[in-house]
Design goal:
The chain has 4 helices and no strands. Helix 2 runs antiparallel to helix 3. The protein is rod-shaped.
Length: about 140
């Protein structure tokens, strides 16, 4: 009985005595930095997701605008089978296409395409007279 009483009585004071010691500033700084990094990463991921959603909506809106402009041009052109060129509708298509090209998605795709075309140009060897055979049945 005496042992139980001492343990139950002494345990709360042991914790208080330990918490009154000065905190380790390095550990506190590390803990604060880890917490900040975790919050910052979550915020950055959330911002990336929001921007991707916004960019997707923007691209979709502009693409649909281009389709609508092409549909309007087609309807106007088909009213008089090829006799009249709907200049304003053609200009609307050009403007819609330029707006679509201004999106980040278009720029990324164009940059990837340019990189792919540069790679293809670098890989494909130029034909030489030895590798090019004359067409069959013809003499040079």
């Amino acid at each position: 009985m005496g042992f139980r009483f001492v343990c139950c009585f002494a345990l709360p004071f042991i914790g208080v005595a330990q918490s009154n010691r000065p905190a380790d500033p390095v550990r506190a700084a590390e803990t604060a930095q880890m917490s900040f990094d975790a919050n910052n990463k979550a915020t950055a991921d959330e911002l990336k997701a929001r921007f991707a959603k916004y960019e997707h909506e923007r691209f979709t809106e502009r693409f649909n605008h281009l389709i609508d402009a092409m549909q309007a041009f087609t309807e106007e052109y088909n009213k008089a089978p090829g006799a009249v060129w709907p200049q304003k509708k053609a200009e609307a298509i050009e403007q819609a296409f330029r707006d679509l090209q201004k999106t980040e998605s278009w720029r990324r795709a164009a940059a990837a395409g340019q990189l792919a075309s540069r790679t293809a140009q670098a890989v494909v060897p130029e034909p030489t007279s030895e590798t090019v055979a004359p067409p069959s049945g013809r003499q040079p």
